Each structure stands twice: as structure tokens, then as C-alpha cells.
Amino acid sequence: MFNYELSRNSAITYWENQPTDRPYELNGFNGTFAYSDHSLIPQPILAFLIEYFYDSIGEARRNHINKIPLDKINSCLNEIWEGPGSMIKLTHLLFDLRRNRTSTTPTNVDKLFKGYQTPTVDSNLGDNSVDIPKER
What's the rounded Cα separation, in Å, for the pair 63 and 100? Predict the structure, then answer.
């Protein structure tokens, strides 16, 4: 199973070790965002944006950030960004959003699998629910 805390700690450690005194590198950026094309967004920021706009992107086109207007993206990033070193904040937000989205509460599980029987090797659902090839 994926360990969110281990992954979060690894990502935070990475960004803590990145220099903040180089304005041409992502962790040292000290300006305002004004992306003019979705393809120019760096992967670490894109991962955050996909989680942030998860509901707007929709089920059918899960990772297509192109559905989100650039002005919304720029506005979101400019509100969150606090200057050099802000990738740590963005990474914390990314993992919080992801954990909240993927948390399995009883209500989510009940809605998702209500009335659904999953056949397994040990279950007896194979007799009526699953086509099992007969030996010839």
C-alpha cells in the first residue's frame, strides 16, 4: 500500500535541500505566475494543480489540466506562492489534498461498492456470478 507520509517526507526533504537563492530555479522563484501555455507548467506544480482542480477536471479526462483556464491557474498559484522556498508549502498542500481525496471513509466505500459482490478465489460467488470455464 502506498505510504503517503513517507512520500510526503521524502518530497519535503527534497525541496528543503533545494537552493532558494537562485531565482531561475523553481524553489527560488520570487515573482508572480503568468503562464501563457499549459505545457510550460513544471511537473511539480502540475501535480499540485491536478489535485487542486481535481473536481473541475472531471472523471473522463482525469489528468488534463488543459480544461482549466490559465488565468485560474495563475491566480491560484499567485495566492499560494510566498516567494523562494514555497515549494515546501505547495508540497504540503498537494499531499493534504491527495489524502483528503483518497481517504476511504465508510460512507465513500458504501456508496462505491453498495450491492456489488466481488468474486474471489475463496468465495462461492463463482457458481452464479462469474462464468467459469468447464473442463472438457
Answer: 18
pTM, whole model, 2 decimals? Answer: 0.70
The domain spans of the chain are 4-127
Distance in angstroms (rounded) separating the CA atoms of residues 90 and 78: 12
Q: Residue 7's pLDDT is what?
A: 86
Residue 97 burial (CB count, 10 A): 16
Give residues with Cβ within 8 angstroms of 85, minimum separation 6: 15, 20, 27
Q: Which residues are CB-contacts of 23 (< 8 A; sequence separation ≥ 6)?
A: 29, 30, 31, 84
The pLDDT assigned to 33 comes to: 93
Distance from C-alpha of 91 to C-alpha of 72, rounded to nearest angstrom: 19
pLDDT of residue 132: 53
